[in-house]
Specification:
By secondary structure, this protein is α+β, with helices and mostly antiparallel strands. The chain is 42% helix and 18% strand. The chain contains seven helices and seven strands. The chain has helices spanning 2-13, 33-39, 43-46, 110-144, 171-178, 189-195, 197-211; strands at 17-23, 28-31, 74-79, 85-94, 98-104, 161-162, 168-169. β6 and β7 (168-169) form a beta hairpin.
Length: 212
Amino acid sequence: METMRFLQSCIYASKCLTLVATNKTFVIEEFNLGFQNLVRYERNLLAGTPLKTFLHKDSWHLLTAELPERKMPLRFVFKSLEGGSIILNCHVNRTDHGYLLFGDQAMLAESDILKKMTVLNNEMAALTRELNRKNRALLEAQEQIKTLTGIIPICMYCKEIRDDEGFWNQLEVFVERHSDAKFSHGICEKCMEKKFAEQLSRRKQIEDAEKK
């Protein structure tokens, strides 16, 4: 007797096992917490409510007086408060007063699946937008970058470069025309000594004279 009471309390408290007893017209008489959790309805309003209230119309045809005994469970589609569907495979047994339906609610609700799919789709869309943005930025950068490739003919003496049309161009002009580089002219120490040797010598003489 203690074992039976224990089993009854476990079945009643279970949120995975869904159990509901109806009369012969499928009006709810008894139910456990699993069924209440499934339909999310106030407990004091469940008893006396037709089972059809919580089912999609596609499942109404299952609730007939000629409902046969079956070894395989029937597929009931319950309504979800979020607007989706909850599929429950229920075994149906006839009783003296009506019917007893019990099933395993471990299966994910269709609404939960849709939620997860929506989240994944949103994440994929966000990643796609970010990828497209980076691709556009890369294409824009590639359009702005000009590179010099291949063999460039250059004079070994004056360092001018011959273009595709056979004209000789100053190195700066050729590079600026074929790239985004700009030149800022200066003079190195070697060229300073070579080009301005006389001026540098005169300046050194003046500095030495000032020191004396």
